[in-house]
Here is the input.
Amino acid sequence: MLFRIIQELLNNIIKHANATEAIIQFNRDSKRLSVTVEDNGRGFNLKETDAQTHAGLESVQNRVTYLNGKLSIESEKEIGTTVMMDFLINE
Here is the structure.
């Protein structure tokens, strides 16, 4: 499921961001996994997303929710986008 989330985010970067760089970070601290995906693309206004963009982000949100995670998106036009996800790991 996490693979599909990252795949969707990278697909969005390729299709929409016009980015020259993308970074994926995984950080584990005890029973917590934090995943960050960021790019230096054109960014967007979260409040003004069109239906097609919203569908991709909604898919990501649904998958994060399915994994009982938390999702945070920060984006600034001409600066880039950062997507942060936090999950609890059951061992």
In short: The first strand starts at residue 22 and ends at 29. The radius of gyration is 13 Å.
